[in-house]
Amino acid sequence: MRILIRHHGIDLTPSVRDMIEKTMDHALDRIDHDVLSVTVFLSDVNGPKGGIDKECRILLHLKQRGFCTVEDKDDSLPRMMERLADRVAHTVRRHLDKQHSLRRGTPNPN
Question: In CATH, what class is 2-104?
Answer without folding.
Answer: alpha beta
